[in-house]
Write a structure and sequence with these properties.
Layout: H1 9-19, E1 36-40, E2 43-46, E3 51-54, H2 57-60, H3 69-81, H4 93-105, E4 110-116, H5 119-136, E5 144-148, H6 157-160, E6 181-183, H7 196-209, E7 213-218, E8 222-223, E9 229-230, H8 233-246, E10 249-253, E11 277-280, E12 292-297, H9 298-305, H10 322-336, H11 340-355, E13 364-370, E14 373-378, H12 384-393, E15 396-397, E16 404-407, H13 415-434
Helix pairs in contact: 3-10, 4-10, 5-9, 7-8, 11-13, 12-13
Length: 435
């Protein structure tokens, strides 16, 4: 059996190319990958010794940076007791504690927590909860969703169906996906009051189809992979009111925005409202392990269990994994032990200052920042084959998609590293424009 610790980099990279299918990559023409040998703080160390400032937080999850002693200790200590037990008929302190923490941190009246193993599954669970709730209420026809254009909710089948059917990443599957309703994405920018025109599309869909709609699903404040768009908190308040008016549930997908990324602990806190169902993930364990959760109100939970099944019909094998739950508890402790909100404001200020120079580039359409999110939107899609190596050559790790060159750095990034990260992002775009 091959021993990777005693295998040279070129050999195991060959194994990777022959056998590993990376996300959104071609088996015919594999994209280049950069071998990482270790990671610590905000730096990735490549196999050739180069060190990169990580501007992506490993897809927005490693908020405390890599190799953090507190999270390492949580993992090591939990391993002494158990790494995993099934959650059917058994329970343990790490999961119970995590459930209590999540209920305490999220807005009332969310009281029930279903722990799963990835963000997409958490959204699948939310959709299933909404549909089973209405079945239990004797309204099985309410089994479709109302989602937003530019939405992204995951890569599994139920979540793909809630993504933008035209401009999203999954239009190839439209013929086999459940067909949902979509309304215009909010155009009102963050910090402004949502106009009547902004709400008209959602209202029109609910007026016409509320008898078939189980829930409205949206990413609060920040539409992530569908365009990195920031929108009005007032829109959330008015969407909540529309859901109440037309008797549909409201699902918030906080996978990307949860745990401080937008400047509030949860993005819905900007609006001072609460959904009926909320999904969290990504930063939940500080990027150490895959873990997610779906929270719901007592009304939803009891409504589901009053139906024919008498139980919620879902049960992942690795639900409530104690190792992941222990690290999640430690990650939450770490976040709350410091003045995290002031820290996010520091990062937002640094991003605004550092990325402003990109506005002068002819190829740039917009520069925008919110919390620990900085976005440079290009006029045309970037060429990944050339721009990705340039970022590495400049000592930073940035992973653009489409027209978006963005950063979501770890919260522990220093001012100097943040300045360097931003300056080099702009420098690469300037070089690309000149090449």
């Amino acid at each position: 059996m091959p021993d990777y610790r005693n295998t040279d980099t070129a050999t195991w990279l060959k194994w990777d190319q022959q056998h590993i299918w990376h996300p959104y990559s071609s088996a015919l023409h594999p994209s280049p990958v950069f071998p990482v040998s270790s990671a610590s703080g905000v730096r990735l160390t490549l196999a050739d010794g180069r060190r990169l400032i990580d501007g992506m937080s490993s897809w927005w999850s490693t908020i405390h940076g890599y190799n953090h002693p507190a999270l390492n200790a949580a993992a090591t200590n939990q391993l002494q007791d158990m790494s995993h037990v099934m959650f059917g008929g058994l329970t343990h302190a790490p999961a119970a504690t995590l459930g209590k923490r999540l209920v305490d941190l999220t807005p009332e009246p969310l009281t029930r927590v279903f722990i799963s193993d990835s963000g997409s599954v958490a959204v699948e669970v939310a959709i299933k909860m909404a549909v089973q709730y209405w079945i239990a209420q004797g309204k099985p026809q309410k089994n479709r969703l109302l989602a937003l254009h530019h939405a992204y909710h995951g890569d599994t089948f139920a979540t793909m169906a809630a993504c933008d059917p035209v401009n999203g990443m999954h239009h190839l599957f439209n013929g086999v996906l459940p067909q949902h309703f979509f309304c215009d994405a909010p155009a009102t920018p963050f910090g402004s009051e949502a106009s009547a025109e902004d709400m008209a599309s959602m209202r029109a869909q609910l007026e016409q189809h509320h008898q078939d709609i189980a829930a409205v699903i949206l990413e609060p404040i920040v539409q992530g992979a569908g365009g990195m768009r920031f929108y009005s908190a007032d829109y959330l308040r008015k969407a909540r009111a529309l859901c109440d008016e037309f008797d549909v549930l409201l699902i918030h997908d906080e996978i990307a925005t949860g745990f401080g990324r937008s400047g509030e602990l949860f993005a819905c806190d900007h609006a001072g409202i609460s959904p009926d169902i909320m999904c969290v993930g990504k930063a939940l364990t500080g990027g150490y392990m895959s873990l997610a959760a779906t929270l719901c109100t007592e009304a939803v939970a009891q409504g589901i269990c009053q139906g024919e099944a008498g139980v919620f019909m879902h049960g992942p094998t690795f639900m409530g994994n104690p190792l992941a739950c222990s690290i999640a508890n430690a990650s939450i402790d770490l976040l709350l032990s410091d003045d995290w909100q002031t820290n996010i404001q520091r990062i937002e200020k640094g991003l605004n200052q550092g990325l402003a120079a990109a506005s002068a580039l002819d190829d740039v359409a917009d520069v925008r920042c919110l919390g620990a999110i900085g976005v440079i939107e290009m006029k045309e899609p970037v060429e990944m084959s050339s721009i990705q190596p340039r970022f590495v050559e400049h000592g930073i790790w940035i992973r653009p998609f489409g027209k978006l060159v963005y950063t979501m750095p770890p919260y522990v990034i220093s001012d100097d590293d943040l300045q360097t990260l931003c300056e080099r992002m702009v420098a690469v775009l300037r070089e690309e424009a000149q090449s």
